Amino acid sequence: MRTPIKSESRNPRTHKFSFIINPLLGGLTGVLLVGQPTAVLAQSGCWAITQLPMQNGQHPSINNSGEIVWALGGIYSSTRGGLAASGMFPHLANSGEVVYADTFEGPLWDLVSTTRGRLTQGGIIDLNLSDFGVQSSGEVVYAVRDTNSHAQVYSTIRGQITSGPTDHYNPCINDNGEIVWNELVPGVGVAVVSSTRGTLPVLPGMYGVGGCAVLGVNNHGDICFSGNLESSPGWYTYPHIFSSTHGAVVGDPAQYQWGGSINDAGTLVWYSYPYLYRAEWVVPPVLSIVQDALGLALEWSTNSSVFHVQYTTNAVPPLSWQPWTGAVATNGGCFDQSISSNLGSIALFRLSTVYYQKTRLPLKNCGSRGFPIVVVQHSAEFFSALDVTNLGQGRRGLDQLVLDPLMIAPLAIIVDEGRDGGPQMLLA
Hints:
Helices cover about 5% and strands about 45% of the residues.
C-alpha cells in the first residue's frame, strides 16, 4: 500500500514550499520537488512544440481539424496536397476554405478563395501593410487605406468596420463574428482592439510601436500574436509568437518565430526557417512522493501518459538529464515509479514530455516523402537566468534547514515554480 507523504506549505512571494520530514530516504539527504511552470494568465502547464516535416514553407495556418496550410511558391495543405500553383499568406477556415493573396493586374495583391475564386479587385491588398482573415461562414476581413491614407478594416459582408484618423490593420475574425485588429494609438503605440470587447489589456510581449502584430483569434477569444521579448534591460527582440492566454511559446529572445495561427484547441503554428512548428498547451500532472514497502516512489496521474521521468545527479547548471529506467507500475488512477536510494547525495527528478515518433506526410502534388517528426519540448537548455536563480534559492533554503540542529531527519521541499518540461523533483 502506498501512502502520500504529508506536507506543510507556505507561500512566500511567488513560490510554494512544502517541508516533509522523511527518515526513509536512506542514502539521499532530502527531496526538492520543483513544480510545473505557472502560467500568468491561465492554468499552469507547458508548451509541447513539434517540429513539422515541411521545409521552407511560410505563413502556416491551422483549423480545428488540425489541417495546416502554408505557402511555398503556391498553397499547400497537410491533408490535401497542392491547392494553388501560386499565392501567399494562406488563411484556413474551419470549413476547409482557404483564402490567400495573389497578384493579377496590380499594383499590389488581391484575395482569392479556393472555393469561390477571386474575392477582391484592383490590386487593393497591401501585404506590407496588413494581414487578413477568414471564418467558416466565408466572411473575410482585410485592411485598405482610405482617401486620407489611413488603413481601415473592411469585411466582405459588413463593409467598413473602422474609421478615424489612425491606422487599423491585421484584422482577423473567428466563427462568432468577432473581429480583432491592431490600432495605432498616437503617443501610445500599438493597441489590440476587438469588435465585441473593445480595446484589450496590454499583455506581455506587446511593447511600443510595432511591438505587436495580431495573427489570429479563435472562438474562445484567445489571440495569437507576434510580440517582443526583453533580451537585456530596455532592449527587445522581435518577432516571437504569443498566446494571449498562455504567453510566449518559446521564452528565448534569441529564437524567432514568424507568421502564425491558432485554432480552438489553442494549438499554434508558425515558421522558423527552415521548418514549420506546432505548439500545444499541455497541463502537466502533479508529481507526488508516495511511500511503499520498498521506500519512496514518484507518482503522477495516468491521464498524462505522455510524461516520463528523467533525472540528473548534477544540480548545478548546465543539467544533463537521463531517463529514469525503473519499472513503471499503475496504482489505481496513477503511475508509480520507485526511487532508488543509491543515487548519491543529490538527484534531480522531473516529468518530461520529450519523445520521438515517425510518420509520413502525403504531399499529393509534390510527391510522397517520409520525414521524422521530432517533438521538441522546452528542455534543460531552455533554463532562463531566473529559473537558475530560483533553483539556487531553493537549494540554499534546503541547506539552511538541513543545518538547523533541531532538524534530525531529512527534509523534502516542494517548489511550485519552473518552466522546464513539467513538474520536477530534487532529491538533495
